[in-house]
Each structure stands twice: as C-alpha cells, then as structure tokens.
Design a protein that fits this description.
Elements lengths: L9 H11 L14 E5 L2 E4 L4 E4 L14 H10 L11 H13 L5 E5 L2 H16 L3 E5 L40 E4 L4 H11 L3 E6 L12 H11 L4 E4 L11 H6 L5 E4 L10 E5 L1 H4 L23 H15 L3 H23 L4 E5 L2 E5 L8 H4 L4 H13 L2 E2 L5 E2 L6 H19 L1
Parallel strand pairs: 3-13, 5-6, 5-7, 7-8, 8-9
Antiparallel strand pairs: 1-2, 2-3, 4-10, 9-10, 11-12, 12-14
Helix pairs in contact: 2-9, 3-9, 5-6, 10-13, 12-13
Bound molecules: pyridoxal-5'-phosphate.
The site of pyridoxal-5'-phosphate (PLP) has 14 residues, from helix 4.
Length: about 425
Amino acid sequence: MAFETDSISPETLIANAKRVLPGGSFGNMPAEVMIRSGKGARVFDESGHEYVDYLLGSGPMFIGHAHPDVTAAVEEQLPLGTTFFANNRHGIKLAEMICEAMPCADQVRFVCSGTEADLYAMRAVRAFRKRDKILKFEGGYHGMSDYALMSLAPKRPGNFPRAVPDSAGIPKSVQDEMLIAAFNDIGMVEGLIVENKDELAGVIVEPFQRLIPPQPGFLQALRRITAEHGIPLIFDEVVTGFRFSYGGAQQYYGVTPDLCTLGKIVGGGYALAAVAGRTDIMKHFDKLAVADEDFLFQIGTLSGNPVAAVAGIATLKVLKQPGAYEKVFATGRTLMTALRDLLTNAGLPAQVIGEPPLFDVVFTREPIRDYRDSLKGDKAMATRFNALLRQKGIMKGESKYYVSLAHTQEDIDWTIAAWTDAIAQMKM
Ligand SMILES: Cc1ncc(COP(=O)(O)O)c(C=O)c1O
C-alpha cells in the first residue's frame, strides 16, 4: 500500500519536522535520524541506509522488528476492533501470563507507558502506607513524572538525600517528597530508611540502574531492610522485564520486590505497560476492596487494548520457547567480549559495562558503581564513537546497546567490523 507521504524526500521531511516539531523531532533522537522500516535486527532510514539496530525502539523490539508472529496476531485482531475501554479476553490472558512470569505479581493493572506505570506504582505504595515520601536513587530513570524527574541526571548533584529537579515546570514542593540515595550504597540507604521510616511510602529502584549492575548483595540487602520496616519495594522493570529473563531482573538477580513496573517488551511494540504486584497493595486499585479514602482512582482510554495485548502475548510466546534467552545472552556475551578486546588492544581508556542483553562502553577506567561514577566517562569520546558507528551502519541510542533475539552472526560480524574501523579512527 502506498502512503500519502511516500513521495516526500528526506530533505523535505526534515524541513517539515523542523517547522512543526519543537527541536525538529519527537524528542527521542536527533531530527536527522528518520527510520522508515525495520525487519528483524535491521532498520532502514529514509535515505535508504541499512543499519544493524541496537536501538530496538528503545527496547521493546526484543524479538526483532515486524516479527511474523506478532504481525499475524495484530492482523487477526485489527478487523475485530482496536480498543473498547472494557475488559477483553486478550488483556486478561496477558495479565495471567505476567502473573505466571513475574515472581512478585499476584495482580496486574494495565496502562500505556512506563512513565504511567511508575507514577501509579509510586501512588499505590503511598495509598498502601498512607505516607508520602518515596526514596529513589540518583541516576535512576522512572519515566517523566514530576517525582521521577528528581535527581535523574543532575548536572550538579546535590547533597544526599536532597532531590534535584531535572526539568523546568516541576512544582518546588515535589523536591520535599523525594529522598535520594546513591545506587549500590547500602549503608546510605539503610541510614535513610531508618531515619525516615515513619514518613516513607516506598522505595523505587531500577534493579539494574541504566547500565550499572547491582553489586553482589545490594538488592538482597535492600529487600531485607525494606521488609524489616514494612516499606514496599518497587522494581522498575520497564527495561529489564522479559529482557534479563522471562521473570525479569527479579528472577535474574533472585530478589522479589513487592511491586514491579513493566513496559516496552510486554506490549510487543504497542502502547501497553503495567503495574504488577502483591494483592494487598494492588487492591487499592479496587474501589470495593478498600475504604473510600484508600481507593486509588485510575483509568486510561487505551489500557489493556486488545491490539497491544495480542502483540504482547505473541512476543511472550516467542520468548517462552526453549533457548530464547540462551541465544540473547550468547549474542550479548560475544559482542561485549569483542568490544572489550578491541578497546583494550587499541589502548583506549574505556570499559564495557552492563549485562549481555544490555550494555555499552564508557570511556573511563574508573570503576562505575553509581551515577556519579558514570559522570567520569568521557562524553565527547562516546558521542564521537556513536557518530562514527552511525556512519558505519550501527543504529543505537546515546548510551545503550539493546540486544535482541533477532541479531544473527551476520549482524555480529557487521558490528565488529564497524567497531574495528571506528576504533581505528578514534585513535587517529
Ligand atoms: C527504567 C525505565 N523506566 C521507565 C521508563 C519510561 O517508559 P516510557 O518511555 O514507556 O514512558 C523507561 C523508558 O525508557 C525506563 O527505561
């Protein structure tokens, strides 16, 4: 089928974008990056260039673009209707699959984005605990709500636990509702929890913060301390859910939170995200299960829509097949090892951090355990490396290689060749 826009040249598209979009883009990538199509682990831009894709739509396309099972499921659903604002069989099935997969999940509430899921998870623990404050970690990303944008990426980090807003337009009062700790610093977290336990509603954490793995024992200690004080622990698994294992980071690291948030992969590339967790917290979404003042009012036009639900179900079915995670991890390990070797042989001050399904290079030899450590990476070098790689057919975001089940040996070879060339140029 031909679209009306098919005949517009890339140059005109960019000019049009610059006219009608602030900054000329949707806000995620530079205006000049315009992707026309994707298939498997490859994407094609509007000028016809082909890329091995490690952006993967910022993570959702874990089984590859336009996967035939997902496409078939969506095509089957489309003539039956797109959204109903009511329960549908596919959303119920997907909720059952989430409860089966995620150790913490007794029940599920669907929303449309990770931002919403995190916002409602924080609200749910406030409703449950009848307290206001949330402890989050500096550098931890939990979407774009006022609360989540506290100390996400402060240019000038403040004194712990004082929150620093990362955006204009956030009421000053929000600063007082958040406590900020350093990731992987269990001493600091314990101190803050003990000191503030009577005001704390919950703790939210990315179990794998951006690219930084938890130090051995950190998540276990966080679980123990929060449980001791009856403070709910939320794992933001928008990225790690169904990526680190079928049971997410909670299964991968062996630590079960009270609530988790899911997004990206669980919607198979469509607008769907979720809060999932313990029944006694989730019951606050149920008007009849709690007193009037404890009810958490939450509705959403597209919540649990059947198109996203069938895409999510089809995606999870692919991931359930034997060997799926072994393949992703093998691909990731091969890539990480190759990149490490190339950087070491070139004598560049760099390290590869992360886990096989999600990693990147940071241009420093200093150990990276928290947000402040990550600032030690040379940003200019990273930007240059990424720009060279884009020219050599590697599509990625600023700071992440998302690995997929669809990446093949050919993609790995293409990537290593691009790294080799780019690193040679970096040395010049
Ligand atoms: C850990 C984490 N939480 C929340 C979000 C927000 O999700 P969304 O972009 O769907 O709002 C993201 C997005 O990248 C994320 O990485």
